Amino acid sequence: GAGVSQSPSNKVTEKGKDVELRCDPISGHTALYWYRQSLGQGLEFLIYFQGNSAPDKSGLPSDRFSAERTGGSVSTLTIQRTQQEDSAVYLCASSPPRYQETQYFGPGTRLLVL
Amino acid sequence: AQSVTQLDSQVPVFEEAPVELRCNYSSSVSVYLFWYVQYPNQGLQLLLKYLSGSTLVKGINGFEAEFNKSQTSFHLRKPSVHISDTAEYFCAVRVINAGNNRKLIWGLGTSLAVNP
Questions:
Q1: CB-based contacts of A89: which residues, under 8 Å, 6+ apart?
Q2: Mean pLDDT of B11-18
Q3: Can you give the residue ranges of every domain in chain B?
Q4: What pLDDT band is residue A51 in, cutting at 50, 70 and 90?
């Protein structure tokens, strides 16, 4: 079946602009995660959605970052007033309701802020 | 707080040689343990996981890992590597019974380069 998809695959933007990154999880997966992968810094947890529960936003680095998940499916990560240090690969993952310990990752969105 | 340390940032090895990628974690509570692999220009893929039971876990592509609770380690091994195993390998942990918190804590990754 279809895996986790993310769009766009690459995004180049100018400092100060807003960007939106999209994630389509695997159908039926109730949990959705956003991570950031920076060069030499590994993966950094950003935010976690689980069904109708309040999201765990503890990893968002600043109030310029926000995310929403509509209808328990598609999620959008928004970065306002982008900075050069926001340049990274943004990864989305989802988990099924029964085996939530396993996360399935999308290919990522590579963001470059000039 | 939990943390994951991958002791080698880069591991060069010749084809058909054995390899071990080391991972240590720190946690005062029980954890689940994972190894993910990221092939060049591809997304992260689950290699294997330890949840409970036998401490020796077998994964895809001939990899295995052993959970050692006393040493808080989860080293990844393969007896004979192939060129196609060249990739970035990530160790991750998740705290058990953390309520709604299911986030993974990641190591910085180990770059495995298999040479002919």
A1: A36, A37, A38, A108, A109, A110, A111
A2: 96
A3: 3-115
A4: confident
